Amino acid sequence: MQALLDQMIQEGAFAGVPKEVVYTIAMVLTAVVVLSAFVAPLAGVTSWLERRVWARMQSRVGPNRVGPQGILQWLADGIKNIMKEDIIPTAADQKLFPLAPYVVFMGFLCAFVVIPFGESLIVADLNIGILYLLSVTSLVVVGILMAGWASNNKWSLLGGMRSAAQIVSYEIPAGLSVLTVVFLAGTLSMQGIIKAQGWRPWDWFMFHNPFTFCAFFLFFTAALAEGNRTPFDIPEAESELVAGYVTEYSGMRFLFFFFAEWGNLYVIGAVVTTLFMGGWQVPPVTDNPVLLGILQFLTFFLKAYFWVFVAMWIRATLPRVRVDQLMGLCWKYMVPLSFICLLGTIGFMFMDTNSRRIFGAITLGFAIATIINFFRRVGFQFRSAKPEAYWKPHI
Amino acid sequence: MSVSTAVFNLIALLLVVSAAMVAFSRNIIYSAFSLLGTFMGVAGIYIFLGADFVAAVQLLIYVGGILVLILFAVMLTHRITDVTITNRAAGRIPALIVVVGLVYMLIQTVRTTPWAAAKQVTFASTTATIGDAFLYDYLLPFELASLVLLAAMIGAVVLSRKEIKE
User: Fold this and answer.
1) Burial of B45 by CB count in 10 Å (0-12 exposed, 13-18 middle, 19+ buried)?
2) Which among A148, A116, A141, A145 has a CA at the least distance from the CA of B60?
3) pLDDT by residue (tens digit) across A29-79?
4) Shortest CB distance from B75 goes to which of A157, A188, A189?
5) Which of A20, A113, A131, A169 to mutate against chain B (most B CBs within 10 Å)?
6) Where are the domains of chain B?
7) Of A109, A119, A142, B17, which has the maximum CB count within 10 A?
8) Local structure of A288: helix, strand or coil
9) Any idea which fold B1-85 has?
């Protein structure tokens, strides 16, 4: 990127303009292009996919009218929401109410800066990568509290409070699980963490030792809770709080909150992939840098999207937890467990590589056995139930 | 004016304006939310000084922790916006005298301090250096600070728990 710009400056493309200004404009333009060409369709398609996947899991059809298989549904929803009347309730706070969606959105969007899509495909490989990601996502809490308070509605306020308490609590197990990986990699940089792993599953930090395997599940659960996803979506629990902190929002403002939520789903998947699943690491099959870049991007994207799918699956399967259960789960089980994982991983770091590999292999074997058992049971379900719709997921 | 100076000025403007809003806003909830801008501006200044780790931690601790706590406290306090915050014991004239004196002192301090010009900032990773400093040179203060925090946490639990009476 910089090399290209330097070449263009040398050829006199921007005569009379200071170099710094050219760089700044290029950076801003890149950010805008990335935002409109990648993040927006990503969140949109995720929203469509979530509805379809949900529908299949609940024996419904789901949105299938707009475009082939309904894939353009998110565009139709966006247009509809933009055209809606922009309503700000009279009793709401006139300054903070319109501001809150943008604060939430900013916190989510800043995370994309450090997500490594490939060896050279990253906006900025910061030295403090993962710490930066944890800190910018804390902006979301402020936005949600702002939305809850500014709506001047008891359901909204309760939802905002719940959400803030939940995010602040679950930051601790999430942070400690991230710390186990940081200890192993010896760096906070996202690319550094990926480079410390390999493309083989037994080189991933997930199968480094049994404790990192636990840390992976702790992190994924905590990330779901921080993203206000079912089963932890008590801030917007329909059965208790109408719609929580988004009760008073409508039109595009409402969509901004959900845009952030669906986009955040991908961020969760990407972070999990980076920390525990080897990120973009691919086997050395080709020397062509372009082809290799595409392969890395696809690997990363598919790994991350697999976890997005798992999050949808969990949402369709599990019931919502109660507020006290949520806090109990965090403070009584996940925080102590993540401390144990941290200490256990430190213990494994003193072990020599060969004896550590045995434990890693046992963990990997356990994971494979679980997956095989899962497919066996699903296959039994298929054979015994013989439902037509299972074989035609495209209806 | 170079671009980095312009960005610095923008950050400084954000910092000063939001700090002024914290101080002058009539509504305490606006003050609390204005702190967001102040904390972010401070983080921006840390970045300009090349302290990337401190900037991220500033956001994590102050925005993610302290600001949320302040907001909780403000929101859970009943009728906090209706209270007129005025000190009846001292009127406007003593206040004016104090303010003028303070402003004079501040301006004098700013004028007489020999300000060091910012060194050429290198954007090297500071995380390892900070860790080394904590665990070699400043180990005792570091451990003491953790002990104080632990004591504070235990104190908070003792104060807030319900006493179980048989």
Assistant:
1) middle
2) A141
3) 877 777 777 788 888 888 888 888 888 888 777 788 887 878 888 888 888
4) A157
5) A131
6) 1-85, 124-166
7) A142
8) coil
9) Four Helix Bundle (Hemerythrin (Met), subunit A) (1.20.120)
